[in-house]
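Q: Given only this backbone (310 positions), what sequence would you predict?
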């Protein structure tokens, strides 16, 4: 398969690797973009999470939290252009979508699209989306939503960058005063900035750990300086690198962005001491506009048409 300049450019944007390295990776993997990313990671030439920045659509993320903080929803609605994403009509539509998501019993996006539109029950959500596409004159897509309920504590939300990133955080706490609310908002900002994958290590699957170990071991063995080191030294190096990486993935193990002398766990321990009651994070949801979308924007109309059943 011929490796084109546009393929090299795309891989560079995804990984931050050099042009020639990207070209070699694509040639070695016959143009498979995902395998090329893995190839570069094994060579130590790409960051683990660069792929998350591969944004292929505009739009916004919005949240809705009930007055008592017990029920919340988050949605991502895509548009073709940033211009429309800033449009007031579009924003009002997204706000209505997330308000409905906070009350829905739908288990997935298809069921959500099929239910009655709360503001006009003569239509479904999908039909209202179709009407908005006609009014705004640009393809749109209700891509995903999540709804959560707090059992013991409360939920806070945070929107960053005008809707580029949205966060929901479920806080487990018997106390819900200004100090705890401020701590929850600080944690939400931490999640927006540092993009953890898990609350703590207990959530990480053995398969994920094994996959990362294989990548890290390949990086170590590809370095000529390590070729003559004994196996036990290699294993210690591997363990050290894996632990460092997992700390970046786990929220409570990350360095707290507002005070680099403590971890997030340390910050929460300090807050718990101040309020005289345990404060912990039960779960979080982080949506970033366009994350994981691998289609180029010119194919976005096709995705919307498919969802609309056209």
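A: Predicted residues:
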């Amino acid at each position: 398969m011929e490796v084109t300049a546009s393929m090299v450019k795309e891989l560079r944007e995804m990984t931050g690797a050099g042009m020639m390295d990207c070209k070699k990776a694509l040639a070695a993997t016959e143009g498979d973009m995902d395998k090329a990313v893995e190839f570069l990671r094994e060579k130590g030439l790409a960051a683990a999470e660069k792929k998350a920045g591969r944004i292929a659509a505009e739009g916004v993320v919005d949240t809705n939290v009930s007055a008592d903080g017990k029920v919340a929803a988050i949605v991502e609605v895509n548009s073709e252009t940033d211009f429309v994403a800033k449009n007031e009509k579009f924003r009002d539509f997204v706000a209505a979508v997330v308000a409905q998501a906070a009350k829905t019993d739908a288990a997935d996006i298809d069921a959500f699209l099929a239910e009655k539109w709360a503001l006009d029950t003569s239509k479904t959500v999908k039909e209202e989306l179709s009407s908005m596409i006609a009014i705004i004159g640009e393809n749109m897509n209700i891509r995903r939503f999540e709804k959560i309920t707090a059992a013991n504590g409360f939920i806070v939300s945070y929107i960053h960058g005008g809707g580029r990133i949205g966060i929901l955080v479920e806080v487990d706490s018997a106390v819900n005063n200004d100090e705890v609310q401020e701590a929850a908002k600080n944690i939400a900002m931490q999640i927006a900035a540092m993009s953890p994958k898990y609350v703590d290590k207990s959530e990480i699957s053995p398969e994920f750990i094994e996959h990362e170990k294989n990548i890290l071991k390949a990086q170590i063995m590809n370095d000529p300086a390590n070729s003559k080191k004994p196996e036990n030294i290699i294993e210690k190096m591997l363990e050290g690198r894996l632990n460092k990486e997992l700390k970046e993935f786990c929220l409570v193990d990350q360095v707290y962005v507002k005070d680099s002398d403590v971890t997030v766990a340390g910050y929460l321990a300090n807050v718990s001491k101040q309020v005289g009651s345990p404060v912990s994070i039960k779960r979080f949801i982080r949506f970033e506009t366009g994350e994981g979308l691998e289609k180029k924007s010119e194919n976005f109309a096709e995705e919307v048409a498919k969802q609309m059943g056209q």
